[in-house]
Every structure is written in C-alpha cells, then in structure tokens.
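User: My notes are a mess, but here's the protein and zinc ion's SMILES. Can you give me a structure?
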Amino acid sequence: MKKRILTGMLCVLLLLAGISCRTEQPQEDARPSVVVTIFPQYDFVRQIAGDLVNLTMLVQPGSEVHGFDPTFSEVSTILHADLFVYVGGESDGWVEDVLAKSERTINAIALLPLVDALEEETVEGMQAEEDDGEAPEADEHVWTSPKNAVRIVEALCDALVKLLPESERTLRDNAARYIEQLNDLDARLHAIAEGGKRNTVVFAERFPFRYLCDELHLNYYAALRGCSSNEEVSLSTVAFLIDRVRELDLDSVFYIEFSDRSIANSIAAATGCKTLLLHSCHNVSREDFDAGVTYLDLMNRNAESLKEALG
Ligand SMILES: [Zn+2]
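Assistant: No problem, the inputs look usable. Here's the predicted complex:
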C-alpha cells in the first residue's frame, strides 16, 4: 500500500512539474468526463447517465483490483475529470494523495463515507494476516449490499445532476427506475435468506461479502479476509472449513470470481458438497465487460447461488 501511495505521489509531482503525460481522452468530446476506479461505480454511473457522460473505468476488466497502481496517464485522467468516483478503502489508498496534491480541487466522491461502514473482521478459523500493527481497516466492499447500492446511486445522481443540470429529469428518472430494481433485488435476497433452511455460508477463499451477509443476517466462515493479499491457504484452514461443512451439513461451498477454485474443489472432494460462485462485482472479466454485464446481472446470479446453498 505504501508503495502505491508513493507511486501516486510521484505521478502528481511529475505532472505538476510539467512533465507531459499524454491523456488518452479525445479532447473534442464535449460531454462531462466521469472517471471511476472500479466496476460497481462504473455500472451505477452508466445506469444513471448512460451516454450523457464520457465514462472511464481505470482498473481494466479482468485485472486484479487490489494491486492497482495508476500510471502517469491514469493520474492525468483523474486530474482532468469533471467527476471522479473511488471507494475510499484499502485498495485505493493512493487516491487521497493524488487528490491532496492536485492544484485544482477535484470533484470527487468516495463510496465508503456514503454508507455505514463495517470493519474487516477475522472470524473463527480465518487465516491470520501478518500483523502490520495498523488498526483494522473498514471493509471496502460496500456495494455487496443492495441497500448500500441505493445510497450510492442517490449520491451519484445528485453529483451527475450538478454536472448536467439540463438533463436533471432524465438522470433522476433513470436513477429512480434503477433504485426500484435494486430494492427488488434486496427484497429477493431477504426472501431467500429468510426462507432458507440454513443460515451459514462457507467461503473457500477471500470473503468480500461482509455487507451482504450482515444485511441478510447470515453467518459465515472463510479462509481469508475480504482484501487479503495472502494467497497461501494453510492445510489447517482448509481442514477447519471441511469440518464446518460436515458439522453444519452444508451441501455447497463458495468461491469468488477469478478464482482457480482449488480450495473449493478440495473441500468439495472431501465432503461431497458442490462448489458455487458468489461474484463480488469488484471487477468483471473482459468477456463479461464487453458483453455489457451489469451489477444487477451478477447480483441476481448471486441470489440464485445463495438460494441453492441455503436450501
Ligand atoms: Zn477488496
């Protein structure tokens, strides 16, 4: 994280020193430019504003969000944005420095302050992180609860109306329609959680679903915390999860997007349970991105998986 902050700082210093960094944005585009870090806010802005804005997602589809480090050109894109949307969590700690060092005040929105933030937690059986002496971080995966998504969409809509006052009616209508769909998703997830035979889920790897499980009152066990950079899962952690699947008589174990599924497959082989995907929406594959997949598509697939797991 420190390395990322330093790189961000270096980029800004070089930009301020006048070293030219070519921006890839076509200058003739008269629409306001909205720059976002990752997929959830990309899709939220797209749902509200559609083609009314020139929208850029910094983290490329299919790439790992947690190690993202902006290039000179990407920092330049942020510095020229009419609106910049980021999470404000551990993964984009470099942003604060970019904003603080910019000569002009950047019109920026962080997602974390828009919701009731939850701290990353370590539950029983979860592999311990190397203790870096820092206080627990806020869990950044705020969008995994549709109720949080509604708050975020409301704030983004207000910000977009300021950029495009002449399109206020369209923007507010789009946001209202979208919020209705988010509320439907929330109701659907609650019905699945409340109607299920089980109320515990087991994750074979990272766990970026604190907000979703908190909202749905689901218990969970997981190998690693939400933003863990630890790739190695120990045999004792896997054994603990196998015991939980057996003890709770679960018939599914979850893996997340971009996973090689190796731990989920080991747990499935040992217990006879099946493996299911729960997509954190953190980022999407290039294929999904090009096909226009949305947050609602992914979350509705998640609802199906949860229904299968909870019975
Ligand atoms: Zn994360």
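Confidence is low (pLDDT under 50) at residues 16-23.
User: Great, I'll file this with my notes.
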